[in-house]
Amino acid sequence: EFKDVFLEFEDDFSVPVGSDGSPVYDGVTQTEIPRAPHTPRHAHPEGPGGPHTHSRAFPVLTFQFETVRRPFEISLWILLASLLKLGFHVIPHFSSVVPESCVLIVVGLLVGALIKLLGETLPVLDTQLFFLVLLPPIILDAGYFLPIRSFSENMGTILVFAVMGTVWNSFFMGVVLYGVCVVEGSELAGVGLLACLLFSSIASAVDPVAVLAVFEEIHIHELLHILVFGESLLNDAVTVVLYHLFEEFATLGEVTVIDVFLGVLCFFVVALGGILVGTVFGLLAAFTSRFTSHTRVIEPLFVFLYSYMAYLSAEVFHLSGIMALIACGVVMRPYVEANISHKSYTTIKYFLKMWSSVSETLIFIFLGASTVAGPHAWNWTFVIATIILCLVSRVFGVVGLTYILNKFRMVKITGKDQFILAYGGLRGAIAFSLAFLLSSKHFPMKNMFLTAIITVVFFTVFVQGMTIRPLVDLLAVKKKKQTKFTINEEIHTEFLQHVLGGIEAVCGHYGHHHWRDKLDRFNKDYLKRWLIAGARSQEPQLISFYNKLELQQALLSWPNCFCISTDLFTLNFSAASQKRSRTMTKISKEREEEIRKILRGNLQKTRQRLRSYSRHKLVLEGEEDSWTEAKLWRQKVEIGRRVSLRINISIEDYIPLLQITAQRY
Predict the structure, then answer these.
(1) Are β-strands 570-573 and 562-565 bridged in parallel, bridged antiparallel, or unpaired?
(2) Residue 18's closest CA among 29, 32, 10?
(3) What number is the average pLDDT over the span 83-111?
(4) In angstroms, how far is CA 465 from the centroid of its own chain?
(5) Where are the beta strands (DSSP E) in 352-426?
(6) Residue 320's pLDDT band (boundaries 50, 70, 90)?
(7) pTM for the predicted model, two decimal places
(8) HSE of 575, CA atoms in CB hemisphere, 13 A
(9) SS (H, E, C) 455-500
C-alpha cells in the first residue's frame, strides 16, 4: 500500500524533461541555470585572512544620504535663513539702509545660481508650500497680535481701501493694459481682455508679507501703519474672488449677467464665510482653554492647532483662509490669555514671532531662487506698462478714495499720509504664487505673466522698499512712539471712550462707541461666563489680584517694619522702616505687563441701562420719585450688606493694609 501511494505521488509531481534529458523549470533547462560552486553545509569560504574569515567586513561607517535628504535640506534652509537674519542685524548701519527683504532676495538669487551651476534641481516656491506651510504663521502672528482698538476705529477706511481700492486697481489696470496689447500687436495680439483682467487682479493686490517686512522697520505712526497693513490683510478676499472669477470667465469665453451677479455674491460668501469659520474655531479654542489648568504644557498647542484648522477648513471650501486666521486670532486671544498661565502666554508669543520670522525669510529666499529657475518670457512693452500702471492706478485710487473718506473722518488723512499710502503698496509672494497657479493650457502667455509679476515684485521691494525710509524722513512723517503708555494714560484713554459712548447715548447717535458698549455687555454677560474658567470671569478680578499682591508684600516685610497695638490702634515704626527699607518690593517686567493687562481688561464700567429720553413717553413725577427711592433703597441694602461683612473681619486682616499705608505715606 505504501508503494502504491508513493508511485501515485511521484506521478503527480513529475518534472518535464528537456531534449538533453535534464529537467525543465519554468521553461529553462537545468543546464542553462548558472550554478554556484558546491560548498559543504558547515564549510566557510576562504578569504584573504584564512579559511575561517568572512567574505565582507562588518560596516563600521556607512553613507546613506538619500534616507535623510529631505529633512536635511529643510533644516539646512532654515539654518541658512536664521544665520542670514542674524548677520543682517549684526552688521552696523546696514539694516538702516537696505531692507531685510531685499537682502534675502539677493541671497536667494545667489543660492539659485550656485545650485544651477552645480547641475542640481532648483528649489521653486511651490504653491502648496507657500499657501499651506509658509503663509499661515505670518498671518496668525499678525491676527493674534492685531491692535484691536486702532483696527476697529478705522475699520470703515480699511474696508474702503481693501475692497474699492483693489477693484479699482484691477479694472483700471486691466482695461488700460488690454489697450496697450491691442496697440502693440505682434507678440501681444493673443492677450485678450479677460486675460488682462486676470493678470491685473493678481498684480494689484497689496502683499501683507512685504508690507510687514518693510513697514515694521520704518516705524511710521499707528494710523498709517494700520491702514496699509489692514488693507493688505483684508484685500485677500477680493483678490481670491477676482482671480477665480476672471479665470473661470477666461476659460469659458463668455460672460453673462447672471455670472456677474454670482461673482459679486461669491465675494460676500468668501469674505463672510472665512470670518465665520475663524470665529467658530476661535470660540472652540477659548472653550478648550477653560479645562487646561491641570495640563499647562499643551496650552500653546491648542492655539496653534485650532488656528491652522481654521485656515485649512476655509481653504477646503475656497473661502478666505487669511480672513479665517485673522478672525480666529482676534476672537480667541482675550479668553485664551485669561485661562492660560503666564509661561504659556510667553511661549505662544515668542514661538509665533519665531515661526513667522523664519517663514518670512524663507519666502524671500525661495522667491529669489525661483527667479533663477524660470522659465521666463520677456516682453519690454508688457513689463514696463505693468510697472507704470501699478503706480498710476495706486495713486489715483488712494487720492480719490481719501478725498471721499476725509469728508466723514474726524482725523483727516493728510497729503503726506496719502503719499506713503500710495507708495507703500508693495507686492510680494502671493502675486507670484497666484501667477504660478495658472494653467499653461488655457493661458499660453503664463510665462510672460510670471516674468512681469516677478519684475513688479522686485521693483516694489527694491526700489520702493529701499527709498520709503528716506522719503519718510524727508517729508517729516509722524513716527510711532517707542515708549509704552503709562497706566495713567491708559486709564484716561479708557475713561474718554466711556465719555464718548455716554455722549452718543445722550444724543441718540448709534456710533461705533455705542456698538462697542453693546458688544462689551454681551461679552461680559454671556461669553466670559462660558469661555473663561472659574472666578476669573467675574469683574472683581482686579480687586482680588491687588488684595493678594498687598498681602504677599506685607508678609514679606512683616518682621522689620512695624508692631501694632490692638488696643489703641497706634502704629510704631521701627528704625528700619524709617530708612530705605520702606520701599516696595520691585516688580519684574513680566509681572508689570500682567498688571497692565488686568488693568486694561477690568476698568470699571460706569454706564448703566437707563431709560432713554423720548418726548412721547415722559415719566410721571411720582413714578420717577418712586423709581429713584427704590434705587436708593437697593443701594442702601447693598452697602449695609458689605458693612456687615466687614465687621466680621478680625483685626489681624487689617494688618497688611495698615502696613502698606504706612509704607506709602
Answers:
(1) antiparallel
(2) 29
(3) 80
(4) 22
(5) none
(6) confident
(7) 0.70
(8) 0
(9) HHHHHHHHHHHHHHHHHHHHHCCCECCCCCCCHHHHHHHHHHHHHH
